[in-house]
Specification:
The N and C termini lie far apart (78 Å). By secondary structure, the protein is an alpha+beta fold. The protein folds into two domains: 3-82; 91-169, SH3 type barrels (Roll). 58% of the residues lie in helices and 18% in strands. It contains four helices and seven strands, in the order ααββαβββββα. Strands 6-5-4-3-7 form a five-stranded antiparallel beta sheet, with no helix packed on it. It has a two-stranded antiparallel ribbon with strand order 1-2. The protein is rod-shaped, with a radius of gyration of 38 Å. Helix 1 (3-17) packs antiparallel against helix 2 (22-85). The model has no long low-confidence stretch (mean pLDDT 82).
Amino acid sequence: MDALTIRLRQWCETVRRRPSPLADAIPMVQEAAATIEATSVELTRLRAENAEHSRARDRLEAELRECDREIAALIAERDAMRDALKPFAAIDLTTNQSVDAMDVLRARIDTADHVFHAPTGETWVVKYVRGDNLAWCGWPPGEAKLGDCTLVKKASSVERESLLREMEGK
């Protein structure tokens, strides 16, 4: 039971128990009417707000359904790419194990990684990668085309941080 109903019932009980002159009842009735009007306005505002929240919820649910469809499409595309790349699975030269081609595509050459440079037949530790070129650690300093290099060993984050600190100290 809301406060207005309780108050009106209390007022009615008071009037029944102790009849009062009409002049005394008029201010109480006017106050009750004002309270009813204010409550009606507040109720109308809350209903409008509720309707807006419902519309917003419906929009968000529609966006969520669209995101779910996009995610499903991306998963299907990824699976199709994975299936198409299966014939091109790579061999990890350090473990001689087969590696999923998607993992090879995902692996980006970065600082401290070990790469095989095909034109020279050398294996290098990567100093940095900039655009289509990479620099190697050691002497003589220089750069090579990234496309001529194959990732042989991916550096751990500890190895990468260690090399970066070492180069920073020079």
